[in-house]
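One chain shown below:
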Amino acid sequence: MIKRRFNKSSIAEVPADKPILYNLKTATGNSNYVGVAKKGRVRQRLGEHLPGGLAPIPAKTMEIKQFSSISDARATEKRAIKRKQPKYNRNLK
């Protein structure tokens, strides 16, 4: 698992060669959003959550886990959302 600050420069360092599950967290460590990004679209998807992006999420840190397939990432995402109930995940609660 990769843990980094949630900012443009940290997103640029995230590997994009596999699908990922990402968890955007507050300064106190609470989950604000859990999502997945497909291989090749990882940095773009994370960038959409930065302030001024298409779907901004307030967060200080991000945790990232790579998967070999998007279906594995989505299955893990669903379990994580049920367990953590992040504030900005509305569809899968």
